[in-house]
Amino acid sequence: MSKSSQGGFKKFCVVLTLIIIVVLVVLFFSILMLKRPKVQPQPAILLNIDVQLSYPIKLNVSLGLDVTIKNPNYGSFKYENGTTYLYYHGKVVADAPIESGVIPARTTQNISTVVELMADQLSSSPYFLGDLSAGFLNFTASSTLHGKASFLNILKIQATSMTECYISVFLKGFTYSHCDSKITI
């Protein structure tokens, strides 16, 4: 083989290698790049309500809270233990744990928890009797989940999901809620 043909073969190999690298980089940034998990809070569900207006006032309220997380990545999303807090006029009246878990690649999963109101915390509020006589109670639910989205266990990105829901519980037995979600990376 002559020197000129060896030089041409080397140039061909270098050009081919560069083309493969460019294709892999474009593929990575267009398809395989880690994306934010999509968090969609679901409306609160009133599971149980029992109000006795005799002294002392007795109140038993259970709310079901659901969050749907869609993982658009080609790798899993692993989240840590978290807690949902339920506030009544800025005061914590319930909390519920959210157990850690993994959402597999390109799937959607619901995370559910049930909060039981602490009746003593609720009834000690100066707003309680007025809201009770009006026929509804307004709450704010707040959850924060910390996690990692990963691809091939090599590339990992930290993500924090903060969800806040505004919930109105009507004493007639139904609820209305509006939820907002924010993700930071």
UniProtKB/TrEMBL annotation:
The lineage of its organism: Eukaryota, Viridiplantae, Streptophyta, Embryophyta, Tracheophyta. It comes from Cinnamomum micranthum f. kanehirae. Residues 67-126 form the Late embryogenesis abundant protein LEA-2 subgroup domain. InterPro entries: Lea14-like_2, LEA_2. The chain crosses the membrane at residues 12-34. Signal peptide: none annotated. This is Late embryogenesis abundant-like protein. Keywords: Membrane, Transmembrane, Transmembrane helix.
